[in-house]
Amino acid sequence: MTTTHQSSTKQDILEYLLKHSQATAFELAEVLDISPQAIRRHLKDLEAEELILYSTMVQAGMGRPQHVYQLSSRGRDRLYRQDSDRLGDSYGNFAVSLLDTLAETVGKDQVKTILQKQWERKAQEYRDRLGNGSLKERVANLVEFRKAEGFMAEYHAVEPDDSKKSDRFLFIEHKCAISNVAESFPSVCGHELEMFAAVLPDCTVERTHWIINGEHRCGYLVQARE
Q1: For the whole model, what pTM was predicted?
Q2: Mean pLDDT of 192-220
């Protein structure tokens, strides 16, 4: 196996753990389609780099205990730093610095108004590009737009509840391309929720997960109005 292939597999492991919070070696071997022996070698290397950690899960019956792996804080930082490198640390730092300067110059309320206008503009851009397809098609397209902007985005269909028959989807972002801005100006996340609601005006959009609250992803439940 080449070094490049090894690096790619380790990256796949880290990204899977970011998306799914935790996994066993057997699960990773099945998902990545490599042998359990190979996956354990990669896990041992990642553990040595302190990018992952594990706990022991005791199985019922006669099954052997298994290690359950998850990202360490260093592993999570590694993935976020990779996004920052691709998008440019200087860009993110400049954005935060610019917003700080604006807040000092014109006041925080005016900055909130500026951010609101920015998200309204972005929402209109997304709506123009999404078209008038089915809800599933529009959510899928929105995922692709966000991926192109540096977000690790995906979506899943959600079963309708007993009282409603409308389509429902969980829109997820595992990594935030504007996390450094969001840390300094949390209101941008509120605007993001407003933006998604404006992009999909025939739907209700509800926040289900939030990275700022310590969760490992941001999530939104999108449901077509009846």
Answers
A1: 0.61
A2: 87
